[in-house]
Amino acid sequence: MRARCDEDFEMRACFPLLFLLLCGPAAAEQWISCGKLFDAKSAKLLGPHQILIREGRIAEMRSGQPMTTGNDQSLDLTDKTCLPGLIDMHVHLDHESNPNRYSEGFRLNQEDFAFRAVSYAERTLLAGFTSVRDLGGRITLSLRDSIDDGQLPGPRIIAAGKSIATTGGHADPINGVSRDMLHAFGYPGPEDGVIAGPIEARRAVRQRYKEGSDVIKITATGGVLSFAKSADNPQFMQDEIDAIVATARDYGYKVAAHAHGAEGMKRAVLAGVDSIEHGTYMNAEVMRLMKQRGTWYVPTLLAGDFVSEKSRQDGYYPDIVRPKAARVGAQIAKTFTQAYQAGVKIAFGTDAGVFPHGQNAREFELMVKAGMPADLALQSATRNAAELLGKWDELGSLEVGKQADLIAVSGDPLADITLLQRVEVVIKAGQRYK
Q1: Which of 8, 83, 200, 303 could link 190 by a cystine bridge, Cβ 3.0 to 4.6 Å?
Q2: What SS3 class is residue 17?
Q3: How far is it, in rounded angstroms, from Cα 310 to Cα 313?
Q4: Is the separation of the CB atoms in 172 and 194 below 8 Å?
């Protein structure tokens, strides 16, 4: 949907990029000539290719040297490597880490967080991530819709809305407040994503459906940054997770499970969740179960690296959080190495928001450092991520018929994975953003 550029349009109130997107001309058809092309199916780097984009999709592909098209909208990237638009399977666009985060909820309004989220989304897109799965935050549902309507620049968002937690659990929105404030706020229930028992678990899933969520997110264990003692204790009983997954299936939802501790992961995998997020203390039994059941692992190494670093900085996190951040941050990369070597299916995810948005591609560097080859790390953010989303027919590779999501870098990213931190071209659904 293209916004009208009325005479009273307040240009000074908009990002310059946003104005160009909404008011600038759009090419109905364009050719792109790539010097090299990353094939997400085989995880191999191919030679020169030409890609025809028509109405936001890839209409034709040719291998070999560029041909004259006679089209003013052609884009010469013969000195660059083209890749599919990247997919981050774990972000939080409704917030960003800072030393004041634990008090901001008492001082700021939802509108403040919403305006910040606009900037976070734009940064993410310009970093080369044309699609993201946002795992927690009501603001993101509206952000998703505004981006889809063409009102804002940002990645394609698959949004969970409010995460589902247990009373006092990792995603309880008033966890850690005083007793008097708790009484003033009122006790959260299934509508707020907080449940006790399988009946309330079903209600919570149905509320997410009512609010327009695309995926269900549960916090199967404690978390690092919540104002609580444990980062890894199981926080759902088996019948509660079973009820969530069964209800989610009735509504066509996939389920992502935040989990640091092995017992909580085991319960989630046995219930049939689609992915384990973080997986810090994953053990051999959980890895075996995940392989048997086809459960994906989304590691978020960058979040672990960031919280480990900040745990050493006085005042950045509350005292109850600092020891958790130190322990989990040190362990998460070791677990990733073990899971990769064990053959667990891995999809790319960063937990952006725990660290500054737009730095998502640093995850690749940490994955390679932890033992995953660069080609498979790239595949985890393209083909694997699209498969976990259930959108392999639409996203994740440069193929005829798919969404025209394309990025480009100078050089060979398989030889230097840090090139992904310097993306030079971003195209989403045929629209050039960078």
Answers
A1: 200
A2: helix
A3: 5
A4: yes
**Which residue, among 42, 79, 93, 130, has the nearest Cα to 376 in the 3D structure?**
42
DSSP for residue 30: E
Instruction: Output helix, strand, coil percentages for the chain, rounded to the nearest 5.
Output: 35, 20, 45
Q: What is the pTM of this model?
A: 0.90
Residue with tokens 């901001």: 104
How far apart CA 322 and CA 311 sit, in angstroms, is: 5
Residue 178 buriedness (CB in 10 A; 0-12 / 13-18 / 19+): exposed
| Alpha-carbon span 326 to 334, nearest angstrom | 14
Q: Which residues pair with 58 in a beta bridge?
A: 53
d(CA 33, CA 78): 6
Residues belonging to the chain: 434
* Cα atoms found within 13 Å of the Cα of residue 374, Cβ hemisphere only: 15
Summarize pLDDT for 278-334 with one digit per residue, the tens.
Answer: 999 999 999 999 999 999 999 999 999 999 898 898 988 888 888 888 888 789 999
* Cβ-proximal residues to 256 (8 Å cutoff; 6+ apart), any chain: 90, 133, 135, 160, 215, 216, 217, 218, 273, 274, 275, 277, 298
Residue 47 CB contacts under 8 Å (≥ 6 apart), including other chains:
36, 37, 63, 64
Backbone angles phi and psi of 428, in degrees to 5 = -125, 125
Distance CA 369, CA 302 (A): 12
